[in-house]
Amino acid sequence: MLPRFVRERAGQWERAAVAGQVRVAIAFVDLSGFTSLAEAMGDEMAAGVLERFSQLVHEAVSHWDGRVVKQIGDAFMLVFAETRSAVACAVEIELRTAREAQFPAVRSGMHCGHVLYREGDYLGTSVNVAAEAERHQVLVTGAVRVEALRRCASRVPSRG
């Protein structure tokens, strides 16, 4: 994939109507019930679980060309230029953590749309819409579903 600035110059990237506004996919990923787990296992063991979760999140985000915007406790805010990458990353995190017994269930919520980029962070309605998910769930909004289906359909050759 070409870098974003190259796509912008070639007219392949949607230009923003507002300065600092970009169209991205935002995802939130966290460990369901981590606070209770941390209380039960103690700070030192909880820190080890969190360190391993952080490693898995960073590896998956890097693999899918995303970026970790911030981490607060066991929650990560992620950003992707491509919606399908956000979905694939969330699924990868879910599958990888499910293989390791120390992790409680993972929750992932995501949305795509215009956001404001300010001082290294993203804000706006599209960030807020990235809904909370249930245990072992990758929850996507309708906008993510439509975008993912549109992108997939454009890559499927016609048979007739």
What's the layout of helices and strands?
Blueprint: H1 4-9, E1 21-31, H2 34-41, H3 43-63, E2 66-72, E3 75-80, H4 83-98, E4 106-118, E5 121-123, H5 125-129, E6 137-140, H6 142-155
Parallel strand pairs: 4-6
Antiparallel strand pairs: 1-3, 1-4, 2-3, 4-5
Helix pairs in contact: 2-3, 3-4
Question: What would you note in describing this structure?
Answer:
This protein has about 160 residues and is of the alpha+beta class. It has a single domain (about 15-155), classed as Nucleotide cyclase, GGDEF domain (Alpha-Beta Plaits), CATH 3.30.70. It is about 45% helix and about 30% strand. It contains six helices and six strands, in the order H-E-H-H-E-E-H-E-E-H-E-H. The protein has helices at about 5-10, 35-40, 45-65, 85-100, 125-130, 140-155, and strands at about 20-30, 65-70, 75-80, 105-120, 120-125, 135-140. Strands 1, 2, 3, 4, 5 and 6 form a six-stranded mixed β-sheet that branches. The longest helix has 21 residues, at about 45-65. It is globular, with a radius of gyration of 17 Å. Mean pLDDT is about 80; it is low at about 5-15 and about 155-160.
